[in-house]
Design brief:
The chain has 211 residues and is of the alpha+beta class. It contains 6 helices and 10 strands. The longest helix has 18 residues.
Length: 211
């Protein structure tokens, strides 16, 4: 019987990444002190594990609720998960948004800045961006945290209910809004979108730190 193919994730090594053979993986860990690596039966699982981080797969459980021991106090937060947030200088003003791994704030995506935007629009686009990326990469039902009830409601309704006026300065932004709304109407997803409890947990990991 042919040996089943494995994919190897190297979190800490000469060149972190995903490798399709043990030989290529070995080159990344040989001579590297305390290298962190693990094999997985499919590329999808390997990608998910690489994004989730080494702590979720070596010496710790990788699903369900667990306690965070990094920058947070001892609180129960679902891991693995993503967190998204937006920042806007003015209302309207220069806006940008991003997504990170909840556990250690590892960046996943960052968009902007966009002129003449609003924070709520950024929060909405960040959520849809995360949903679309998770589906594109086949990463499964990874939960997404947001601290914006308004944006979460817009995602449920598949409509960005902003009062922002469309002008030449924010034409690109409105193109992104239309694209996000179209994605929501034409795609199904099962990722839980969860409210980040700022009063209990502090700022969301994706926060830009400008308050």
């Amino acid at each position: 019987m042919a040996k089943k193919k494995k994919y190897y994730v190297v979190w800490e090594g000469n060149t972190p990444g995903i490798y399709e053979t043990w030989k290529s993986c070995e080159l990344q860990i040989k001579g590297y002190p305390n290298a962190k690596y693990k094999g997985f039966p499919s590329l999808q699982l390997a990608k998910q594990a690489y994004n989730e981080g080494v702590a979720n797969h070596i010496g710790m459980r990788s699903a369900g609720k667990k306690k965070i021991s990094s920058s947070f106090k001892s609180i129960d937060i679902i891991l693995p998960s993503w967190s998204v947030d937006a920042a806007c200088s003015g209302n309207p003003g220069l806006m940008e948004y991003q997504g990170v791994l909840t556990k250690d704030k590892t960046p996943i995506f960052h968009m902007g800045p966009f002129p003449h935007g609003t924070n709520n629009v950024g929060e909405f686009l960040a959520l849809v961006h995360a949903l679309a990326l998770l589906k594109k990469e086949n990463l499964g039902q990874v939960p997404i945290y947001s601290d914006s009830k308004i944006a979460m409601g817009w995602v449920v309704k598949k409509k960005c209910n902003t009062k922002l006026k469309r002008i030449s300065k924010n034409e690109k932004l409105f193109t992104l809004i239309q694209r996000a709304e179209t994605w929501l109407r034409t795609n199904k997803f099962s990722n839980p979108i969860l409210k980040w409890k700022t009063k209990e947990w502090g700022e969301i990991p994706a926060d830009f730190g400008r308050k």
